[in-house]
Design goal:
It contains eleven helices and twelve strands. It has about 325 residues and is of the alpha/beta class. The protein has a twelve-stranded mixed sheet. α2 runs parallel beside α3 and α3 runs parallel beside α5.
Length: about 325
């Protein structure tokens, strides 16, 4: 028997209080490390409806989840996504509704997102050079994203963070410029180590840049003070002295964070993945569609999923094939 005071605790005693929900596999960009150039996207009926997304979020919040990140694909290209944000933005028990976006639609949408209850925005930017930006994203226009960042700043979110994936020979000489950009805009920035996800036909072993090297470079240019901030994930934060900026280093190859892992991911097909780097999952879509007016089976399955949340992930750059062949745009970043 399920009571609404039930929390999600796995077999290692970790409480899951954070979900990342991908609301679409589609995107207006084709970033080299994330997608193939020629992607086939899912048929509409195989993707969760926005009502199904709202139902999932509500159930997780009932089960003690306090933070929800909406991601994709590019969440802001999903038609009527604002309806979902408004629907869940004011849920009692939910402390933080946040979003990860490529920023291409933000100049039109930032204000409405803020009003809907989105507290913080992560915006992915890998280069400040328009041609390079186009090469990395294959279709993206830097000017649009920069305008989107300014609109987000004007909208007054509680936090704005840039996300950057550095790749050797592509943009690894821009770490300092990107940090200076963040300092000038009074926002934060995180460097994400590239993960072996998806068959993107891109030579990761030769382009991989370790956060250890990036941190050493940045320490030679700025005074960095360790920050106590922790999100229960693979990020470590530093404060840049005499600025409002924090720098995060998201190092998924290190195993140090798995013991405090507090999150699960839900794909736009309703697959509940218990770990970014492992295959363990359960399918929520049939539970939603076979029981349109009864949440009990969904709640029970989510509680039971805690028994199969793995202890840690298993990434290895040296392998011939990726450890996990899911695209990041599928699982959600
Ligand atoms: N489209 C949105 C965006 O780009 O921010 C949200 C989805 S995207 C999959 C989320 C994050 O995952 C982005 O910051 C992106 O840079 C990152 N990402 C995608 N593929 C990655 C990979 N193979 N390794 C590391 N980060 C990756
Ligand atoms: Fe799209 Fe984001 Fe993937 Fe780039 S990283 S292709 S913007 S989903």
């Amino acid at each position: 028997m399920v009571t609404t005071s039930q929390k999600l605790i796995d077999q290692f005693g970790r409480q899951v209080d954070y979900i990342r929900l991908s609301i679409t596999d589609r995107c207006d960009f084709r970033c080299q490390y994330c997608m193939a150039e020629d992607m086939t996207f899912l048929p509409r009926n195989d993707v969760l409806s926005l009502e199904e997304c709202a139902r999932i979020v509500k159930v997780f919040v009932q089960l003690g989840v306090t933070k929800v990140r909406i991601t994709g694909g590019e969440p802001l290209v999903r038609k009527n996504a604002l309806w979902l944000f408004e629907e869940v933005g004011q849920l009692s028990g939910l402390d933080e509704l946040v979003i990860t976006t490529n920023g291409s639609q933000l100049s039109n949408q930032a204000q409405q997102l803020k009003q809907a209850g989105i507290k913080r925005v992560n915006i992915s930017v890998d280069s400040l050079n328009p041609e390079r930006f186009k090469t990395i994203t294959r279709t993206g226009e830097l000017a649009k994203v920069l305008a989107g960042i300014d609109s987000a700043i004007a909208a007054g979110f509680e936090g704005i963070k840039l996300n950057t994936v550095l790749m050797r020979g592509m943009n690894d000489d821009e770490a300092v410029d990107l940090v200076q950009f963040a300092i000038d805009k009074e926002i934060d920035i995180s460097f994400i180590e590239e993960m072996p996800l998806g068959d993107v036909n891109h030579a990761r072993e030769s382009t991989f840049v370790s956060n250890k090297d990036t941190l050493a470079l940045l320490k030679s240019k700025y005074t960095l003070l360790p920050s106590a901030l922790t999100t229960g994930g693979p990020a470590k934060y530093w404060r840049v002295a005499d600025s409002k900026t924090k720098i995060g280093f998201i190092s998924p190859h290190s195993h140090n964070f798995c013991e405090s892992c507090n999150r699960v991911r839900i794909t736009c097909q309703g697959e509940l993945y218990l770990c970014l780097g492992q295959e363990d999952k359960i399918e929520l879509m049939p539970l939603l569609r076979n029981h349109p007016n009864d949440d009990a089976p969904l709640i029970e399955a989510i509680i039971n999923s805690m028994k199969i949340k793995p202890k840690g992930h298993d990434f290895d750059l040296q392998r011939a094939a990726p450890a996990v062949v899911r695209f990041m745009s599928h699982t959600g970043g």
